[in-house]
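Section 4.2 – Deliverable D4.2 (structural model, holo form)

The reporting period included a commitment to supply a predicted holo structure for the target in complex with 6-O-phosphono-alpha-D-glucopyranose. Inputs used:
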Amino acid sequence: MCGIVGCVGYRDAVPMVLDGLSRLEYRGYDSAGMAVIDGGTLRIHKVKGKISQLRATTPAGFSGTIGIGHTRWATHGVPNAVNAHPHTDPSGRIAVVHNGIIDNAQAIKDSLLARGHVFRSDTDSEVLAHLIALSRAPALAEAVREALGAIEGTYGIAVLDLENPTQIVAARNGSPVVIGIGENEHFVASDVGALIRYTQQIAYLDDGEIAVLERDHFRTLSIEGTERTKGVETVDWSAGTYDKGEYEHYLRKEIFEQPDAVRRTLSGRLEPRFATAHLGGIELSAQEILRTRRVQILGCGSAYYAGLAGAQLIERIARIPADAEPASEFRYRNPIIEADTVYVAVSQSGETLDTLRAVQEIRRKGGTVLGIVNVVGSSIARACGRGIYLHAGPEISVTSTKSFTSTVTAFTLLALHLGRIRDLGQGEGGRLIASLEALPAALHAALATEGQAREVAARYREMTSAFFVGRVRGFPVAAEAAQKLKEVSYIHAEAYPASELKHGPLALICPELPTFVIIPDDELFDKNVATIREIQSRGGPVIAIGHSSALYDLTGEAILVPKLEPEIDPMVLNVPLQLLAYHAALLRDVDIDQPRNLAKSVTVE
Ligand code: G6P
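Output (structure tokens):
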């Protein structure tokens, strides 16, 4: 969602704040702003638009050794310069940047209006600046603590105060905040990615914690005011992994990174000797695994679709009934938490609020929940306390690609691990290990279909809608592919289980509506061929994604990828469809890495 960044040290904070914001832009990007304290003056600069605009319009001489910044994805109030953060109190003493949503903002605003306060913006965040300024506490941390005591909702904040001009105070409740430790400077951000150029020494704030940053030290305290000791961790992602390098877009870079991402997800986790996977982080004993009667997977967007694939892997390989459900639906239906169910929360960012709340609900009710998460130290990873890190490397493009593939890889490892404690034989385990070892090379070969994906995108450049269909393991691929096409190229797309076509969607088949059929060479091949014929006989064009060269004769348009074991194939079949979405978007000249109305990490309801 929104991004926050701040810096206090010995040099001008503005270049750091602008650079940090541009690295956070993928989280939200409709307006931006920054504040600095410069020689006894609090100066603010805000714009509607992107960080490039903020940078280009920064007034000459706008500088200071202490500063904060924000990139916004509007929730309360339209995107414009007034609603952009930082927000100030009426006297211009306090500046606040805020991620999250203050649920009782209107009530606070009403009571302050009654006391004669004037508000400039339509945001919920502005009340924070007013409340902090109202406090009589001389120390900024105390004033922030008092103000937060009146707040209901979620926040990650950074605050500047003219009366405490050497400090940034940050606080967190439900929206991530990390502290960066440099030499003679300290940083704050909502994401490690904003800080990595400046330091790899990171401390993660927990919910209910406040940090006070000064040039040469930082301290943390609880919202109740007691001092806390914070461990400092070294993050091992280098600055280069956050750059586009030779690629024009992060999306294409991340699609092409998939062989490496999967290698990292697998690294050190295959145990050929026992034909199993070693997953130290899940902390489930063999007895607990034997007692498990169900696996329930939760996630949002692509994480949910990866969960659909994961549920099938667990059922097929470990023979444990498994299901996936959108985390948001789960959390609102007062779920029954079972002691013999293992819950799995999937999230690339580890910050998606619906998924986090689902985890908290499960834990509150005493359930066991594992995280499958990419960002180390993120809220969901910490709330689960156990699970599997993807190690896919930073994913910057709003549209998820490598995290989907790495997540399905992690599910294959989990299914193998669970299966080998239950009924999966050594031979079957060995077959899956060999296939997983071959996966990076197969993904690499699938990337060579880019030319064909580009041609298909060009041939159907006028399409306004498309269907994606698959059976059983083909269906999560279809669902993910429809999502990719929609979000990145703005072309309407629907996914159906292939067998469902005849129960309604077939009515829409016509020469203008292409159907992408995921048709692996497996036991359902003939059924999928029947689907293709059904579509063709109604005049609908079919593009087949599969393994068999017979598909060329059948459809005239097929993209073939290498075949591995049936359980692993969905990850490879997905690649040409990612490339299709990318090229369809390129032809439409849209903002590929930052599609309209979307954010990489949705930390609001
Ligand atoms: C947003 C993104 C999607 C992503 C989903 C879940 O909606 O635009 O690409 O799949 O959030 O994100 P997560 O970080 O939890 O995997």
